[in-house]
Amino acid sequence: MRLTVIGTGYLGATHAACMADLGHEVVGVDVDAGKVAALRAGRVPFHEPGLAAMVARHTGSGRLRFTTSYEEAGAFGQVHFVCVGTPQRGDCDGADLTCVEEAFARIARHARKGALLVGKSTVPVGTAARLADRHPVEIAWNPEFLREGFAVRGTLRPDRLVFGVRTPRAERLLRQVYAPVLAAGTALVVTDFATAELVKTAANSFLATKISFINAMAEVCEAAGGDVRDLARALGRDERIGGAFLGAGVGFGGGCLPKDIRAFTHRAAELGVDLGFLRHVDAINMRRRDRAVALARELCGGTLLGTRVAVLGAAFKPDSDDVRDSPALNVAARLGLEGADVTVYDPEAMDNARKAFPLLGYAVSLEEALRGAELVLHLTEWPQFREIDPRWAVRLVRHPRVVDGRGVLDADRWTAAGWHFRALGRPAPEGAGGERRRG
Q: What pTM was estimated for this model as a whole?
């Protein structure tokens, strides 16, 4: 089929490349001429494993093209996917739909007769119906469930597809688009507009709630002398709960979960429904950053003034260069405000971090970040950080003190190497880090 993808950011570029990989002819559209030029040359302006090679392969074969022309896109496509951003509004927690509304209006003006416009952007419930009433074209909603770092795999082999449609024809066209995915056994839910919109926001809200729940339990563990990792393992063995998203630490960030739960709460309030518990989920998440700073302060005797701190991580999660609402950078900035001399290192997100927080210091390598440090904070769970040999690292730092903000480092191994070790939700280990607290 001939498809167009409106918006070539993280969602759009991934969707366009994956649709080409499924065998479709695809045109990606964006108003940013620089982004279009980069994609035409096979370059992806962000880090996502496997995506750059896929874009280069399909632009080279001619199956994937990029343009700034809505007129060209409208004449080309049978199905048009709208994949533009919905950031948080500046005046409230609601979603800013300016780009979505403009994209639908522009492609609707140029779409040929019989075309289907499909929304993939995360929007407040009721948006699809309003757009369908406003434009004389057929509309469907097909929410995305991408996870940064796993986006290509998640698009080609998703755990489910959701089609929000009003007609059998719209369902039939979407089944054609996703025929190879459905043939592989992917579950399909066909539903109405409102439910399709709610699936994404409800899923993100549930995941955020699960993360904040285990982080609240981490606070209880710290107060009682328990170990949140053992607690999470025990909870995860319950098949009703499962172990995913039970990793306690400095909490979630990025461009989706924080803004989506706030926008969902805002929209629910407009509909007369109180989802106030999501405000508590958000508050728990934010105070984990406070606790990371407090642990750093405790390890340094009550003050961070003048302390040379190495922050390992800038991206909000590994396998990404996305620093939007990054817990790692937020904590780094707070340390700087308390007078610490902060140096940040991340394998992929350095350029974005410098743009977002230009006053922080940055290292070109892990070794440079550690050299001379008086405190180390592990804040993004990159494999190369998890695999650090603490015996190697202890020879680089000035004072061997570490805060594990992701709960994945081996406390006994680090302590045996001479480190004073602390982690969120876990008691201080015996040995170099001080005597283990008892509950």
A: 0.91
Q: What dihedral do alpha carbons 146, 148, 153, 157 form, nearest 10°?
A: -20
Bridge partners (DSSP) listed for residue 343 = 310, 361
The number of folded domains in the chain is 2
- Same domain as 373, residue 259: yes
Verify that 259 and 230 share a domain, yes or no.
Answer: yes
Question: Which residue range is the domain that position 320 belongs to?
Answer: 194-439
Q: For residue 255, give the DSSP letter.
A: S
Q: Where are the beta strands (DSSP E) in 215-340?
A: 308-312
Q: State the Cα–Cα distance between residues 374 and 400, nearest whole angstrom.
A: 7
Q: Could you give phi then psi for residue 413, rounded to 5 degrees?
A: -65, -45
Identify whether residues 27 and 119 lie together within a single domain: yes
Q: Is the dihedral of CA 147, 149, 152, 156 positive or negative?
A: negative
Residues 250 and 294 both lie in one domain = yes
Sign of the torsion formed by the C-alpha atoms of 322, 325, 331 and 333? positive
pLDDT digits (tens, 9 = 90+) for 168-187: 999 999 999 999 999 999 99
CA 53-351-398 angle, 5° bins: 120
What's the CA gap between 260 and 335, in Å, rounded?
27
Rounded to the nearest 10 degrees, the angle between the axes of helix 33-40 and helix 51-61 is: 80
Q: Are 323 and 265 within one domain?
A: yes
Domain boundary residue, one of 191, 225, 254: 191
Q: pLDDT class for 431, splitting at 50, 70, 90?
A: low
Among positive and negative, which fits the CA dihedral 58, 60, 65, 67? positive
Rounded Cα distance between 438 and 56, Å, is 57
240 shares its domain with 162: no
Looking up residue 134, the CATH number of its domain turns out to be 3.40.50.720
SS3 label, residue 119: strand
Q: How far is CA 153 from the centre of its chain?
A: 15
Residue type, 214: I
**Beta-carbon count within 10 A of 112 CB:** 11
Let me know the angle formed at the C-alpha of 164 by 163 and 168, rounded to the nearest 5 degrees. 80
User: Structure tokens of 141?
Assistant: 């909603």
Q: Which of 18, 83, 99, 256 is catalytic?
A: 256
Through-space distance between the first and last CA atoms of the chain, rounded to whole angstroms: 63
Cα distance between residue 251 and residue 328, in whole Å = 10
Mean pLDDT, the chain, integer: 95
- 99 included as an active-site residue: no
Taking only Cα atoms into account, the Rg of the chain, rounded to an integer number of angstroms, comes to 24
- The set of residues, in sequence order, having a beta carbon less than 8 Å from that of 153 and lying 6+ positions away, is 50
